[in-house]
TrEMBL record:
Highest taxon listed in the record's lineage: Eukaryota
Record-annotated membrane-spanning stretches: none
A Pfam short name: Ig_3
SMART domains the UniProt entry points to: LRR_TYP
InterPro entries according to UniProt: Ig-like_dom (IPR007110), Ig-like_dom_sf (IPR036179), Ig-like_fold (IPR013783), Ig_I-set (IPR013098), Leu-rich_rpt (IPR001611), Leu-rich_rpt_typical-subtyp (IPR003591), LRFN (IPR050467), LRR_dom_sf (IPR032675)
UniProt keyword GTP-binding present: no
Keywords: Disulfide bond, Glycoprotein, Leucine-rich repeat, Repeat, Signal
PANTHER family: KEKKON 5, ISOFORM A (PTHR45842:SF12), SYNAPTIC ADHESION-LIKE MOLECULE SALM (PTHR45842)
Domain Ig-like: 247-325
This protein's name: Ig-like domain-containing protein
SUPFAM superfamilies according to UniProt: Immunoglobulin, L domain-like
Length: 325
């Protein structure tokens, strides 16, 4: 980075391992992208109190001292995305009373404690998508009165507690990027129950789990609460993994040599599996027959092939194919 840069300093792809300390104290914008910085210390930005924009994306930052940003009271934009953060200490951002935009996406954060976003009265946009969060506790977003956009996109998140906040409405697609979400307490918010909230008001308590895996098996507890009290009930979910089709040994109920023209011929295709496999039979003519097929050649649910009014054209090889999903 040039020590003579004006109010804006752009230091990109310089392989820095720490925050440079030879920049003008008057800079208001600092970009430190694509470096090898691994930690942020208490005094890294003490000289740059005039900063309004600080970009630290695409580094290797795994540790942030909770006093790192303590003197950046004019900062409006902070980007910590694409690093190796696993945890952010509560009050790390509490001195940033003018912060509008905070990006912590594309890290390895597993837990966000209440107080992490304390004293951010001007925060408008919080981007925390593409982390490894599985739970967000009540009070996490309590001190964000102006928050307008919250980007989560957390495919592993199972629980988010939004009780006793200042939420007035929820857009139908708010949680569309949370396929594993199973618990979402919302009580104690000042809801505006107009037509925009019909998707919530008409809820019937149905839990939808997309792309089910074996990890979704287990006990689910449903709790219903109103001013008169609360009640709960349990349900257990078993996840069955499909088993491969096991072929049987095809057998003929009558010898083909004994079948006369005009008689009926029955052949068996045996197969088992979970789910129950579907049987398809390839005839000597090259055509396929299934349970849904009609006509002179039919396939029954148990795999039996029935051929009515046998002709010389029915002689040849029959191939049984069993499939399941």
């Amino acid at each position: 980075c040039s020590s003579n840069c004006p109010s804006y300093c752009g230091c990109i792809r310089k392989e820095l391992t720490s925050v440079p300390q030879d920049l003008p104290a008057t800079i208001t914008s600092l970009q430190l992208q694509h470096h090898h910085i691994t930690s942020l210390n208490q005094y890294d930005f003490s000289k740059y109190a005039k900063l309004r924009k600080l970009i630290l994306s695409i580094n290797r930052i795994s540790i942030v001292n909770k006093q790192t940003f303590s003197n950046l009271t004019e900062l409006k934009t902070l980007d910590l995305s694409d690093n190796k953060l696993t945890y952010i200490q509560p009050c790390t951002f509490s001195a940033l009373s003018q912060l509008n935009d905070l990006k912590i996406s594309d890290n390895r954060i597993t837990n966000i404690d209440p107080g992490t976003f304390s004293n951010l009265p001007e925060l408008f946009h919080l981007r925390s998508c593409c982390n490894r969060l599985t739970r967000i506790l009540s009070g996490t977003f309590t001190d964000l009165p102006k928050l307008d956009r919250l980007d989560l996109s957390l495919p592993t998140l199972k629980e988010i507690d939004l009780e006793r906040n200042l939420l007035t409405s929820i857009h139908p697609d708010t949680f569309s990027d949370l396929p594993k979400l199973i618990l979402l307490p919302l009580k104690g918010n000042p809801w505006h129950c107009d037509c925009t909230m019909t998707h919530v008001r008409k809820g019937n308590g149905t839990i939808t789990i997309r792309d089910v895996t074996a990890a979704d098996a287990g006990q689910y507890i449903c709790t219903a609460t109103n001013p008169g009290g609360s009640t709960s009930d349990k349900l257990f979910v078993e996840v069955h993994t499909p088993t491969p089709v096991m072929p049987g040994v095809p057998t003929a109920l009558v010898e083909t040599s004994d079948v006369m023209t005009g008689e009926a011929l029955y052949l068996e295709c045996e197969a088992s599996g979970t789910p129950k496999p579907d049987i398809t039979v390839t005839l000597p003519s090259g055509l396929n027959a299934t349970v849904e097929s009609g006509g002179r050649v039919t396939v029954r649910e148990n795999g039996t092939i029935a051929i009515k009014d046998v002709t010389a054209a029915d002689a040849g090889q029959y191939i049984c194919i069993a499939t399941n999903q």
